Structures are given as structure tokens and as C-alpha cells.
Amino acid sequence: MALTTIDWTDSEQSLGNLTELSVIAFHHRAIVVSILIALTPIGLFGNALVIIAVVVAKKLRTITNILVTNLAVTDFISCLCFPFLSAGLLSQTGSYPIHDIICATTGGIIIACAYCSSSTLLAISFVRWYVITKSVRGHQGIHTPKKVVALVVIIWTQSLALIALPLVLGIGTFGYFKYLQICGFKGTNLFGNYYLLFMGIYIAIALMLTLVFYLLVLRHVLRHRKQIRNMFTTAEDIRSGTILKNQSQASSTSRESRPPKINAINKMEVEITKNLSVVVGVLMICTLPQSINLMIPGVDALMIYSSMIILANSVVNPIIYGFKHPIFKEVFKSLLWPSRTA
Fold first, then answer.
1. What are the angstrom distances between the C-alpha of 316 and each of 46, 131, 341?
2. Domain, as residue range, for 82
3. Which parts pass through the membrane (predicted)?
């Protein structure tokens, strides 16, 4: 069955104004729904496990994990919306099968969670950069529980304000797209279309800044590992050509002259940062199909498939923690198989 295409030269024919077009073929929607329904219990269980792990395990109650928990809460809420999105995708009547308020609420929550997730990942990358490059262990700085909790509150407040903004300005609403059969934002005028563009740019900038912070961490770690190797090489040269007294003095000097920043970079910090960067990398991979699809003129079944891939990202983070994060992996095992760890 051929899919209707959109003439993007007309500013009114935007994603927010596709209510009069024929719908995407049912078999495409059924495939997406099947995947979303299968992912729902996995996402709910996995993200709940992350939240419980941080609550019950003292070793996980760190500053960074306040933000990781917030990300899990965001993903958990997103997974709760999957069944309501699925109901719209399966509709055969051209209207949302439940109450319209449910659809509008679901669309608003999904977009708020998208804002919150991208902002939280940015905050996590900034904290990891600050911890490793500024050697904040031993003094407070911005790296305190109260300040990070305040940051979480700010992230949620900003996310909710951004979805309320188009409603207050009267440039759009949240509701049901008849063509795509999904719940989301519907621009009512040209400014509403610009809001869709703003939403994409906001998330893209947040992800790019997140990547920049992790690259800065990587550069810092590689640079100071090289310094450590050079220090040990120098110490070995001194020991090979001097008496035992000079050897002891050189070793002492080498330890004392090591910069505080190097002392702050232990194996665990680097490993945790590396695994959190994997979370960002997976998100970028999940976002890429949607980004490419939005740049291609016309709207077709690829839109709901790429949207599904982005939603699936809410499920994968706990899996990454379970397989890659050293402490989460240990705590997950103790929660799921307590008899084996007793």
C-alpha cells in the first residue's frame, strides 16, 4: 500500500497538521505496537531495579547516582506511556480510542521526558567531568547532594515549563495525529512549527554538549596517564644509575610531585565514566534514525519506526548498567539472586 507523502514547501503542511491525511498501513503500526508492548515490562522492571538498587545499596548512594536515578525515573515514566501510545497506533477509527485527555497527557509526558532525559545526561557528563578533572574529592565545590538534588528539581521544572509554553502562547496543543496514529505535539500555526524545530535543536545541543564533556574527560585521562608513565620511566632511569639513597629519594620525589588531579583518577572513576558514556552513545544511535528521517521530505512509516527506536532507549540503560557498570552489576546480582551472594 502506497503511503501518502507531504509537500513540505507549504509551511502549513507540517508534522503538526497531518490530521486530514490517510493513515499509515495497519501492519506497520502493528509491528511497532508489538515491539512496544514487549519492551514495556522489560523497561519498567529494569528501571525500577535501578531505582531500588540505589535506595538499598549504600555504595551506590553517590552524587552521580542521584542523576542516574533521575534518568531511571524518567525512563520508567516513559515506559508507562507505551501502552497508551499503542492504543492510538492500533486505532481503526481515525480517532484515539480512549479519552482525548489521555492522549494529550501521554504526548506531553513523552516530550517532557525527552527534555528531562537529555538534560539529565548532560548534567551527568558535567559532573563526571568535574569529578575527574577538578579533583573535587576532599572538598565540596558544586559536587554536593543538596546542589545536585536542586539541579534535578531545576531539570524537571524546565522540562515541564517547556511543554507548557506552547499551550500558554496558544501556538499548539497536545493530541492525536490521525496520519501517524500517535499522541504528540500539534502546532496550530507557523510558530507551532518553529516549536517543533526548537525541540529538536534543544535535544541535539544537549547531546552534543554531553559528548563534548566525555571527550574532555577522555583527553584528561589519557594526558595524565601519559604523565604517570613518564614519571615512572624517569624514576627507573634514576634508580639504574644512582646509589640506593638516591633511589629512595627519587621515588619519594616522584610520589610527592604527582599532581592532585592524577591522584583523583582511579580505576573505578574512569570505569564508571566510561560506562556512562556508553549510555550516551546508545542514545545517539537511537536518535540518529529519527534525525535523518526528519531531514528527508515527506512523512511515511519510517517516522513511527524511528520514533519507536527513540522510545526503546528508555529500556536499554538498565541493561547497560547490568552488563557494564561494575557496582550496579554486583548489586543487581544480589537483588535478583540473594541466595548466591549470601
1. 8, 25, 25
2. 15-341
3. 30-55, 67-89, 101-127, 148-174, 194-217, 276-296, 302-323
Give residue 113's identity as a one-letter amino acid code: C
Query: How many Cβ atoms sit within 10 Å of the Cβ of residue 25?
Result: 13
Looking up residue 215, the CATH number of its domain turns out to be 1.20.1070.10
Q: Looking at residue 92, what DSSP letter applies?
A: S
pLDDT tens readout for residues 138-154: 445 666 788 899 999 99
Each residue of 3-19: b (16+ CB within 10 Å) or e?
Answer: beebeeeeeebbbbbbe
In this prediction the pTM is 0.78
Helix locations, 15-140, DSSP H? 26-56, 63-89, 100-134
Q: Is 107 left (phi over 0), alpha (psi -120 to 50) or beta?
A: alpha
Q: Are 210 and 122 in contact (CB under 8 A)?
A: yes
Residue whose C-alpha is closest to residue 336's, from 24, 10, 52: 52
Calpha distance 317→211 (Å, rounded): 17
Region of residue 298 (phi > 0: left; psi between -120 and 50: alpha; otherwise: beta): left
Residue 6 lies in a domain: no
d(CA 333, CA 187): 47
> What is the SS3 assignment for 169?
helix
Distance spanning both ends of the chain, measured CA to CA: 58
Residue 284 pLDDT > 90:
no
Report how far residue 274's alpha carbon sits from residue 128's, in angstroms, rounded to the nearest whole number: 10
Per-residue pLDDT at 156: 95
